[in-house]
Amino acid sequence: MKMNKLTDWLPTTNKEVKIRGWKELDVILFSGDAYVDHPSFGPAVIGRILESYGLKVAIVPQPSVNDNLQDFTKLGIPKLFFAVTGGCMDPMVSNYTASKRRRDKDAYTPNGDKGFRPDYATSVYSKILKEKFPDVPVLIGGIEASLRRVTHYDYWSDKLMPTILETSKADMLVYGMGEQPLREIVELLQKGVPFSSLTTVKQTAFLLNKGEAIPKNKNWEDIEIQSHEVCLKDKKKFASNFKTIEQESNKLRAKRIFQDVNTRKLVINPPFPTMLEEEIDASFELPYTRLPHPKYNKRGPIPAFEMIKFSINIHRGCFGGCSFCTISAHQGKFIASRSKESVLREVDKVANMPDFKGYLSDIGGPSANMYKMQGKVQSICDKCVAPSCISPVICSNLDTSHKPLTELYQAVDSHPKIKKSFIGSGIRHDMLVPEFNKNADPKELDDYTEEVMTKHISGRLKVAPEHTSDPVLKLMRKPSFKYFHKFKERFDKINIKKNLKLQLIPYFISNHPACEVEDMANLAAETKDMGFQLEQVQGFTPTPMTVATVIYYSGYHPYTLKPTKTPKSRKEKEEQHRFFFWYKKENKDWIRKTLNKVGRQDLLNVLLPETKEKGWKSVNLKAVKNTFDDAIPSYESNASKGSRRKKKYKSKRKRR
């Protein structure tokens, strides 16, 4: 394998620009992450995409905002525009826990050091650039900008915020995955079209000043949502906006959205169609070094990179539409899959890396088993407005064949340098249950499950039923817990048949909208009865652009506009958590009093029978949903998924 030269990375300093012989730059990209030149890291993808269009591009990773701001001026003024992203995760999720405590580590910084990414990084960087270079266009994108493109609730400030275009002072926003809109933006700029005239590019948003004419496009229909000022005064009207926003984000033929913000008008153009196979292949096959920039060699490893160094992303998008998750809001509902040939070419690159030991850490996507899945009749999908293809039931038009994925796994494993390939991404277990996935071939589902269990996991299979309460699951857009029981039956059958001794690790979430204390008692009792004793859990974290967050703030379900209760106080959240730890001495009296008060002696008898509990060993289960952390593996968040893979789990069936 050839040795990398400094010029194999995008330049980050004036010295590196001069080494390339460049006198000026076309685009300068600012990022809240350290620079890792890998297709799982959004800033690198955007830089390489712009480079592929013939532009001279430099990147300024984690610019300092606590000094004389020289990082924002050191590379001069670009010919076309500044580009800004907060990084692979929303900076507030990177910087704070669900309880709003500042995190001790930042996974996207060398050595995990904190303090290199400001809160609300996209707005901070963009405002600095507009102050210093008011006449140079600033284009923002990435997950922070994408999910804050309209009026949204910000959990960390506990406020309703306007579009990030207002707070950042940026000129334009690209939402979702950036390859397609960037291509059109660059093509128009290279033809001499002024940046201010780029008003009809799909998948972009911008603000019109009072009196400015609305750009004309005869192919688009328009729809107006409640203004920011109305949202501030009326929570129910704020909630009503979300149905429109979510449906138009997921439609293949969407409308242009307008929203009044103070004296200006927000314009959100419709999204591009789902990327074609050749388009997504091209994005993943750009000349990445797949390594952090050499400037970090003496600063320590970058945790997020170490987690995904030997992983392969095979598709984007998720048709699950879970009410707490932002994947479809950012990557889209429809699946964009890479070709098998493209995946195998990347496998070969990884296999020939000098420190590769033969083990791929993940072959996956946002949901590992959605590869190559799409509508059987495209015209039906073209008209669909449903936020989920598998809730409340699996759409009869959805092809859920797991055969292409099984064949891909087998092709990867046939590579002479691959000893084992793991599936580290979350698997939708409900799609593997014939009783739920009624249109699928049961044998094909079993073949896939057996393939995963026998060849692609190391002792534990992680799935996410999320809850046991049907009303809560319905709001989550997740299937009934009975299907987890059905899946466990199939899992146990294969376990015995193959003498595997594998463990099934379910993830759960507490404090979700519609979840009552009694629901958590049911969850604790049912999981205990199945042989699980939970040790580590995480509550629901409200993040922009999800149904659950809208409910959390407003108290109304955006689709029905009916009042929906959410645990919000510290006391309510702590009480829900206590049921996970029914076995701890300090919780037992409280549980007895609580369940007696609501007349649920049946649950009390399951959780705290008079006879002494025997035969238990802990299962360290961590709930999936901090939503941004779990939106994997988009190039904005793929690197975060390995944190769950590092957890140690132990379980033991209850002795009968």
Automatic annotation (TrEMBL):
Binds 1 [4Fe-4S] cluster. The cluster is coordinated with 3 cysteines and an exchangeable S-adenosyl-L-methionine. Keywords: 4Fe-4S, Iron, Iron-sulfur, Metal-binding, S-adenosyl-L-methionine. PROSITE patterns: MTTASE_RADICAL, RADICAL_SAM. SUPFAM superfamilies: Radical SAM enzymes (SSF102114). Residues 642-656 have a biased composition (Basic residues). The keyword Cell wall biogenesis/degradation does not apply. Its cofactor is [4Fe-4S] cluster. [4Fe-4S] cluster binds at residues 318, 322, 325. Residues 304-584 form the Radical SAM core domain. The keyword S-adenosyl-L-methionine applies. Belongs to the UPF0313 family. This is YgiQ family radical SAM protein. It comes from Winogradskyella marina.
